[in-house]
Write a structure and sequence with these properties.
Blueprint: E1 2-3, H1 5-14, H2 18-25, H3 29-36, H4 43-53, E2 62-63, H5 71-80
Antiparallel strand pairs: 1-2
Length: about 90
């Protein structure tokens, strides 16, 4: 799962705000909502945020691996046709 918690920390440290992203940089309020809800973003949007905030991708998003003990992991792998890792 992609998590955008690093974005909020980077935003706070930058001196920018969601208001300035929307009004000064034309980032849509829908994009801000997607960040709040950890919904998918395009790489173009991530690139724009990195440019605005002068940061690296890892300062916008973090990958949280699925818990291998849950059925969600099996469903994910079937839907994405990813190879299972060996233990």
């Amino acid at each position: 799962m992609i998590n955008y918690q690093p974005f909020w920390e980077t935003l706070k440290a930058s001196g920018e705000s969601t208001y300035s992203l929307i009004h000064d940089y034309s980032i849509s309020s829908a994009t801000i909502d997607r960040l709040r809800k950890d919904k998918p973003l395009s790489t173009i949007t991530i690139d724009d945020l990195c440019h605005i905030l002068n940061c690296q991708v890892g300062e916008i998003a973090a990958y949280i691996p699925p818990d291998p003990e849950t059925k969600e992991n099996d469903i994910f792998l079937k839907h994405r046709s990813l190879p299972r890792t060996r233990e």
